[in-house]
Amino acid sequence: MNKLLKPLLMSLRLDGLIVLVLGVLFWTGKALSLAPIHMILGALLVLQVWIVAGIAAKAGVAISRVALVVVWGLIVLAVGGMHMQWLPGPLHWIIQLVHLLLGLSLMAQAEVLGMKIKASTRAV
After folding, report:
1. Where in the sequence is the domain holding 85, given as residue range(s)?
2. What is the 3-state secondary structure (H, E, C) of the chain?
3. Cα gap 18→8, rounded to integer Å
């Protein structure tokens, strides 16, 4: 299980960095043609987080923590897929900020799950 976890977390971090950089580019009005790549990589990021959550559940991490991360992933997907339709115009930055914070917190939750997985496998 730990053999899969390390490369999965590294892949998740790289994916998250690319998604973040693309998002910042979009905020500055650049590279808008890369939006489909941003969306695909964002969905892949959520999938990677869900795999970490599955490993965490199998490792005995509290099911409430695992469920929170799975639901958070659903929220990130929903907001990411629909945020362009919400608050169009000069206030759209609010939705963009919410989208950014949701994504960053999802990545942070994956890191926490990774630590809890490592701690639970050391205890066994």
Report:
1. 2-123
2. CHHHHHHHHHHHHHHHHHHHHHHHHHHCCCCHHHHHHHHHHHHHHHHHHHHHHHHHHHHCCCHHHHHHHHHHHHHHHHHHHHHHHCCCCCCHHHHHHHHHHHHHHHHHHHHHHHHHHHHHHHHC
3. 15
Q: What is the pLDDT of residues 10-51, one digit of tens each?
A: 999 999 999 999 999 998 889 889 999 999 999 999 999 999
Residue type, 11: S
Give pTM, 2 decimals: 0.89
CA 42, distance to chain mean position in Å, is 7
Number of domains in the chain: 1
User: What pLDDT, in 10s, does the model give residues 49-101?
Assistant: 999 999 999 999 999 999 999 999 999 999 988 877 887 888 888 888 999 99
